[in-house]
Sequence to fold (270 residues):
Amino acid sequence: MFFILHTFQQFQLLFITLFEFLNPILEILQKNGLVFSFLLVGLIMYVSYLLSKILTNHKIPGAAIAISFGLFIAYLGNGEKGIASIPIFSGMAVLGGSMLRDFSIVSTALGASFAEIKKTGWVGLLCLVIGTVLAYIVGGSVAYIMGYTDAKSIATIGAGACTFIVGPVTGSAVGASSSVIAISIAIGVIKSVIVTIATPFVAEKLGIIDPHNAMIFGGLVGSTSGVSAGLAATNPKLVPYGALTATFHTAMGCLLCPSILYFLTQFFID
Fold:
């Protein structure tokens, strides 16, 4: 009995000592939340790409593993801000906010040649429209199968199938519920992961070997993050081209989904 009590006291003393040692560090990290969030995301990316190399020989891109890590971490968070609700991770709210998100999307097109962009011509524009409408129809059909029969929910979930950005934009515009908007984001994230993993396997078969085809692929598929990560695992030189049209895919979705496609859905549903 004395031994157990003594051991417990030793553990208690060790815990107090450890807390006193870590408390100043935690206070510093909390005051520099954004810097710590960059460090944390960088560490996750490093580990993810290391696992991709060791376990899959780069067959599964590191970005897909990193997204999976991110989803798991987000699941651990509580409150409206997820993991950012915890004070030490408060910087995640800024790092994952719309400003840095949009900056990252735009920056992926850096390095693209305007001469190569012009080569797509009307085919590139047609791919954007087809890709947006097709994704919307597939997502809307999934929503209907899930039991959503109102135009607002179908339009929001259909828009989420375009990208996880178009979903909440459309949902906010048409007045969809927060739960439906969350579903639209989830569908967009799942699509991003699938595109990331599948692209290296199908790129050669689909002829995605030059900037022209990479731009067509990005316009049809959308999902800037998925296209960028997938092409990075295929051929890093193609990333700016695929990301450029995928970005326009997001813009096209933000224009069409809350307006023309929503009104068409409302016409056929209601």
Summary: Residues 2-106 form one domain. The radius of gyration is 22 Å. DSSP finds twelve helices and no strands in the chain.
